[in-house]
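re: the backbone from monday

yeah here it is again, tokenized this time
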């Protein structure tokens, strides 16, 4: 019985971290006025998925599949945010979705829409917390959560 309580507590912590991460990103975007790049928006998806998975994990605690699913989600978040940090540090080249320069558009209306839309470059860091970009913070947070989930899975398998 105590073990189920601990697992539910762990899922609740992951839920709170995921929800806070999304709320902070939305606050920075809509209230502080910093527009995100495409990778910043993509990096929100794992947190949305994590919120959904934590509800399933709390409801069905005896099944380890939700922990494995969360492990995969935060591994993908780690990879995606690592790629974004690599672009910011100019280790990797930006993909065309980041720059807004797509040469494959042949329709003039599509081209006009692209020219009129403001696409924020993925290598530009407009907002920092304690000197770290949001992609770097996400990279570190995803790694820490990934390791914690690994430890919880290991503990659950040993019981």
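seq for it, each position gets an aa:
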């Amino acid at each position: 019985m105590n073990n189920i309580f601990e697992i539910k507590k762990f899922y609740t912590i992951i839920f709170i971290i995921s929800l806070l991460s999304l709320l902070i990103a939305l606050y920075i975007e809509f209230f502080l006025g910093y527009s995100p790049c495409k990778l910043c928006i993509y990096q929100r998806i794992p947190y949305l998925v994590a919120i959904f998975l934590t509800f399933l994990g709390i409801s069905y605690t005896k099944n380890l599949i939700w922990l494995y699913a969360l492990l995969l989600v935060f591994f993908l978040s780690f990879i995606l945010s690592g790629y974004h940090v690599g672009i910011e540090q100019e280790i990797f080249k930006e993909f065309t979705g980041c720059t807004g320069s797509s040469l494959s558009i042949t329709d003039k209306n599509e081209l006009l829409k692209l020219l009129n839309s403001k696409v924020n470059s993925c290598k530009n860091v407009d907002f920092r917390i304690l000197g770290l970009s949001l992609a770097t913070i996400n990279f570190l947070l995803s790694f820490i959560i990934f390791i914690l989930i690994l430890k919880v899975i290991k503990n659950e398998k040993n019981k």
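Residues 79 and 139 are 8 Å apart (CA to CA). The radius of gyration is 19 Å.
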